[in-house]
Amino acid sequence: MNPQKKVILITGASSGIGLTCAEYLSSRGNLVYGIGRNPDFKTTEFTYYPVDVRNEPAVQSLVSQILEKEKRIDVLINNAGIHVAGAIEHIDHQRVLELFDCNFFGYLNMIRSILPGMKKRKSGLLICISSIAGVTGLPFQGIYCASKFALEGLCESLRMETHHSGVHVVLVEPGDFKTAITQNRTIDPLTVKDPFYAGNFETTMKKVTLDESTGANAIDIARLIENIMCMRRPGVRYTAGHKMQRVVPFLKRIVPSAFFEFIIRKNYYS
Fold first, then answer.
1. Among residues 14, 15, 113, 131, which one is catalytic?
2. Annotation says 49 is catalytic
3. Domain holding 205: CATH number?
4. What percent of the chain lies above the pLDDT cut of 90?
């Protein structure tokens, strides 16, 4: 095997950011394995397996299979995710569990399966796709934000736990991108019917849909990840997307909290 070629495992690889990253990184000479929930997805650009990140035994089995064949996994790109929109008051508890099972515990399953091998080799890169919503709350996206906030804390802690191990942990925080998330998002029906929320919710979702439809191209994230892969000591987090969205985390740190909240609220529905 070419020593410059990386063995990469990408979750959520059957669509959106994951698919773009898998195709791009494969075209750059890397050996890419992708997994996703879609059993009908077919590709000749990389090796795909229909594995759900929420299924821990299936994840461990696949990782063992790849390690047996390739002897290593150099990079994990944790990307699989789902989205639900609605008022925190109304979103069904089972729906909340399903979202966290994918957006948080699915990431955890992947990390726990791959980290031991990276530690043994004293080399590896764990990239977790978070979101701008992982550093600031957004109206009617509270459950999604909570899963990304949890991911941010997990990765910050993991960086400290694996310090000097040769394993690097990195967060990538995209803003809005043109992906299938718009079509695949679950809309909470109770929020739509509740007169207290309905007006602001409708306005918010129109703005969210507009931002996504005019969002950046996922190829930007693929190129960012390629750059991170070339760094000797990558940083904690990197934002991606349109400049106005990328400035949000910085803005949150420097302006008064009440004013920052006003800006976010006004952007969506005031």
1. 14
2. no
3. 3.40.50.720
4. 86
